[in-house]
Design brief:
Elements: E1 2-8, E2 11-17, H1 22-39, H2 46-68, H3 81-106
Antiparallel strand pairs: 1-2
Helix pairs in contact: 1-2
Length: about 110
């Protein structure tokens, strides 16, 4: 494990990280420090200062995720006129068959 010090909000924080991750962790610490400065949270208590930074970073993450999300599906799907016509013909054919069966069951197809 490596130990590094992160200057955040005018304070120094000791952090442990895996070997080789030091620069990445430093860059993250710089981003948190930048958020604290943008929020005007310098001089606040550590929890309050870090809360402001977390809220700002969470807001940024939310904006990025919202921009990357696919657009919502429309409430009514696109209609295909040919498919609608085929469906209508199929329904008409089924209706005709049901009527023929009903006439047969009622005795309408019998000839005297």
């Amino acid at each position: 494990m490596s130990n590094i010090k992160l200057p955040i909000g005018g304070r120094s924080f000791a952090v442990s990280c895996a070997p080789g991750e030091e620069e990445h962790i430093r860059a993250l610490g710089e981003r948190i420090d930048e958020s604290i400065r943008e929020a005007g949270a310098m001089g606040q208590s550590e929890p309050r200062m870090l809360l402001f930074a977390a809220l700002m970073l969470a807001d940024e993450l939310h904006e990025v995720q919202s921009a990357a999300a696919p657009p919502p599906q429309s409430a009514t799907p696109e209609r295909d006129p040919e498919a609608d016509a085929q469906l209508s013909r199929t329904i008409d054919a089924i209706t005709q068959r049901i009527e023929n069966i009903a006439r047969h069951l009622e005795g309408g197809d019998h000839h005297p």
